[in-house]
Amino acid sequence: MIATAILLILSISSVFSVNNLVVKEKEIEILQGEQAVVQFQIRNHSSVPLNKTLIFLSQTPYLTHPEVILLDAWTSNVTIQAELPVAGAIVEALNCTEDGALVCPLDLKEAYTRVTVIRSHWLAALIQIVGWTYFAAWSVSFYPQIYLNFKRKSVVGLNFDFLSLNLVGFGAYAIFNLLMYSNSHVKQIYAIENPRSPPPVLLNDVVFAVHAFLACLVTILQCVFYERDNQSVSSKCIALIIALLSFGFLSVVATVLNKISILAFVTSLSYIKMAVTCCKYFPQAYFNYSRRSTVGWSIGNILLDFTGGSLDILQMVLQAINVDDWSAFYANPVKFGLGFVSIFFDIIFMIQHYVLYPDAQVPHNTYHGVDNPEPDPIVRDAEQQGSGDTDSMESTDPIIVHD
């Protein structure tokens, strides 16, 4: 209740306060060696003239600009020279004075901008292309498995532990992104705890997470209606899911009892996603090993996931080069580590599919009609001979399936 009251007071005060010094453009990108103009202006100004107010600006070695600016007709333009590559350098009004007064007559909370100095516009464009490409690859990666299940009318070969953990992980991730993007209280608390920081979640993050959860849900429905043999969720996986859900429930209770903030609760959901990512691949890898086969496990899913993960890391490298800042790799080791885990298991799955078990035989008539571009000659001859037998309409020999 106390936190909610504080946020309400801050919201009301920001709306009705006067003489707010603001910068409209919160994000500016400048090529190294070039200049950009930033405009400071007074919003909701009072009738008292403030044209003799001096504004003192922060300094950074990456940028060159005046230390003090003078307001003229409620505004002041500042020319910023980009000296060295940097990501998100803050240029802000630190203080102000009017005719030597000791008290600043302006509200300076919104008087800042984040400046990124890049080495190349072409590299910046490439970063955007790579970003949208890995977003598309990850988004589409769910469909090869769904299509394979539909074509076979069977989910035999798809490990239910992997699928269950995936549903829990993306469910938590979707709630995390939805709250971080749309909940005003969460965003206000984040702004208080992380001043001058850009929004941590964008619209494409929300779309991806919700889409991934729905794709997992569709796959689970396929497991209900299609043939699944004797497959089921293991007791170990059930125990892990109960532990993860219990952690989330306890976080909800702690939030309701005001033991933690709603932002802390939202952050706890990201921990669930991280735990799932670290665990979910093991069941499917061991399942393929125990069956000596990857039939039923779509390699298209793996190839797209590998593409998305690789391009994600490539984008981090390109961004680091363009702004001469490699802190993303060691300041946020969780993101890099989870991406590395995914790529590591994708390589294992590709080795299983193309090297260890490339010609796995599945004696099951349900798989008839699945694309098999390179059938085994013995099986092909047997099928051709069997096609001329009027007493039997199908071959009893196993059919080889290449996903």
UniProtKB/TrEMBL annotation:
Skewed-composition ranges (Polar residues)? 384-395
> Would I find Calcium among this entry's keywords?
no
Its Gene Ontology cellular component terms are:
lysosomal membrane; phagocytic vesicle
Chain segments annotated as transmembrane: 122-143, 155-176, 206-225, 237-256, 262-283, 295-318, 338-357
Q: Where does the protein end up?
A: Cytoplasmic vesicle, Phagosome; Lysosome membrane
Spell out the molecular function terms from Gene Ontology.
Answer: L-cystine transmembrane transporter activity; symporter activity
Print the keywords alphabetically: Cytoplasmic vesicle, Glycoprotein, Lysosome, Membrane, Repeat, Signal, Symport, Transmembrane, Transmembrane helix, Transport
Sequence segments annotated as region (Disordered): 367-403
Which domain of life, per UniProt? Eukaryota
Q: How does this protein sit in the membrane?
A: Multi-pass membrane protein
Signal peptide feature range? 1-17
SMART domains according to UniProt: CTNS
Q: Does the keyword Repeat apply?
A: yes
**What chemistry does it catalyse, as a reaction equation?**
L-cystine(out) + H(+)(out) = L-cystine(in) + H(+)(in)
Q: Which family does it belong to?
A: Belongs to the cystinosin family.
Tell me, in a sentence or two, what this protein's role is: Cystine/H(+) symporter that mediates export of cystine, the oxidized dimer of cysteine, from lysosomes. May play a role in the degradation of engulfed apoptotic cells.
Descriptive protein name: Cystinosin homolog
